[in-house]
């Protein structure tokens, strides 16, 4: 209790100068102790229109993403890159994303399924559940009346056919075509296109013309048939692989009738092709160009083109150039390209570094699952990720990823429903105990995101 003198002094001071606030001594503390004074905050989400992916780890909010809704407002391009080590949830994310997108009536998806076991691709269960028959590209089956895709299909423009033929040859040779070889191919294609009108031209026609060039197609340049035959010999040998070699049957005949391009889901099963062979990028080039000319239409339908093992596209300069055109063209017609790769270093340091960088720039959405520290740093440099995101990538648990949607960076836990679970976990090599352990781990993450 203050003394009478102190009370009198304070009353007089207040009367003359007004109320005087008490001055308190400063308090020394740490940021860890002082954090309680600040209200919790979280970065803004992407809105509530689209498909739900899961929930943000730090805020607990639901995470909704749809490139078609965000395009033009928050996204300059609707294309998406998914990265991460095997076994961390890339495949689960792809499959649930497609299943949820197909709930919208104006969606259509094409998947290039490059993985599988027991003779079928890993998208086989989802296709069966939707009543879809995958388009299985298999050299052995093609010889017995299996699926064929014709690079010279009349549905593809003559310019597109020639570009595709050049790409096939360049991928197989591992280098660009020389001018003379390119001229021989161009002359052969022009002759076949003009001379064959009663049926679909096929690759055999190109090979035969390269071996026996036509005088009319080369006469204007004043060169001899022997010269043109010599210029086109290497080209003929490469294309002969698709006619009589290990890839015969799939591309050396008219396109198989009855392929349903109006189905909500179209799955190209490439699991019978050696993923490490030169056949895979050739296949992807042919399928990509064929789809560009037969599938993408100005009908206001929103289309998703999902490519697994996409490094076969991005790492080849010749295939990447074809897909660059497809991506630029597709943006005007509602196409979202989804590329799934394991390591970004597989493509950015290769022969197609320039083309890879161009495609990566088109991908305004990047999802990164767990990577080793060195790979995470390399990924962060290429994609321009913030430092905090790069630091946590090596610590991410399965099912959790860093999402960068045109600079809006969040850590997101992917949620799988019980209905989706049997369609998503299709690895038949997993034992029941392993599945149960994974489910328990996911439940733990759901209960404690910081675990």
Automatic annotation (TrEMBL):
InterPro entries: P-loop_NTPase (IPR027417), T4SS_component (IPR051162). It comes from the Bacteria. Transmembrane segments: none annotated. This is ATP/GTP-binding protein. It comes from Peterkaempfera bronchialis.
């Amino acid at each position: 209790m203050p003394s009478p003198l102190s009370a009198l002094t304070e009353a007089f001071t207040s009367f003359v100068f007004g109320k005087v606030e008490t001055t308190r001594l400063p308090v020394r503390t740490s940021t860890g102790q002082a954090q309680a004074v600040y209200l919790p905050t979280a970065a803004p989400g992407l809105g509530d229109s689209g498909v739900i992916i899961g929930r943000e780890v730090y805020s607990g909010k639901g995470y909704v993403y749809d490139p078609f809704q965000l395009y033009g407002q928050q996204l300059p391009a609707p294309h998406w890159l998914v990265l991460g080590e095997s076994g961390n949830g890339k495949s689960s994310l792809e499959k649930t994303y497609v299943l949820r997108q197909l709930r919208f009536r104006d969606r259509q998806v094409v998947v290039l399924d490059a993985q599988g076991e027991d003779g079928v691709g890993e998208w086989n269960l989802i296709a069966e559940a939707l009543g879809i028959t995958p388009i299985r590209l298999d050299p052995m089956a093609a010889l017995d009346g299996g699926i064929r895709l014709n690079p010279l299909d009349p549905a593809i423009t003559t310019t597109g056919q020639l570009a595709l033929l050049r790409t096939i040859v360049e991928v197989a040779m591992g280098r660009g075509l020389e001018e003379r070889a390119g001229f021989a191919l161009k002359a052969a294609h022009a002759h076949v296109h003009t001379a064959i009108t009663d049926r679909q031209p096929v690759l055999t026609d190109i090979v035969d013309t390269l071996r026996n060039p036509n005088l009319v197609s080369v006469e204007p340049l004043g060169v001899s048939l022997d010269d043109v035959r010599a210029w086109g010999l290497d080209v003929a040998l490469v294309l002969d692989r698709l006619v009589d070699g290990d890839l015969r049957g799939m591309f050396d005949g008219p396109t198989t009738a009855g392929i349903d391009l109006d189905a909500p889901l179209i799955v190209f099963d490439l699991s019978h092709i050696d993923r490490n062979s030169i056949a895979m990028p050739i296949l992807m080039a042919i399928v990509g160009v064929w789809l560009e000319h037969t599938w993408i239409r100005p009908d206001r339908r929103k289309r998703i083109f999902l490519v697994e093992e996409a490094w076969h596209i991005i790492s080849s300069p010749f295939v990447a150039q074809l897909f660059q055109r497809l991506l630029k063209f597709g943006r005007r017609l509602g196409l979202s390209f989804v590329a799934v790769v394991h390591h970004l270093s597989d493509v950015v340091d290769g022969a197609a570094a320039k083309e890879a960088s161009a495609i990566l720039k088109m991908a305004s959405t990047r999802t990164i699952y767990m990577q080793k520290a060195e790979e995470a740093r390399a990924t962060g440099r290429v994609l321009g990720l913030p430092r905090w995101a790069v630091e946590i990538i090596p610590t991410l648990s399965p099912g959790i990823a860093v999402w960068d949607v045109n600079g809006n960076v969040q850590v997101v836990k992917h949620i799988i429903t019980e209905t989706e679970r049997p369609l998503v976990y299709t690895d038949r090599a997993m034992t029941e105990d392993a599945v149960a352990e994974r489910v328990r781990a996911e439940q733990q993450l759901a209960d404690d995101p910081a675990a």
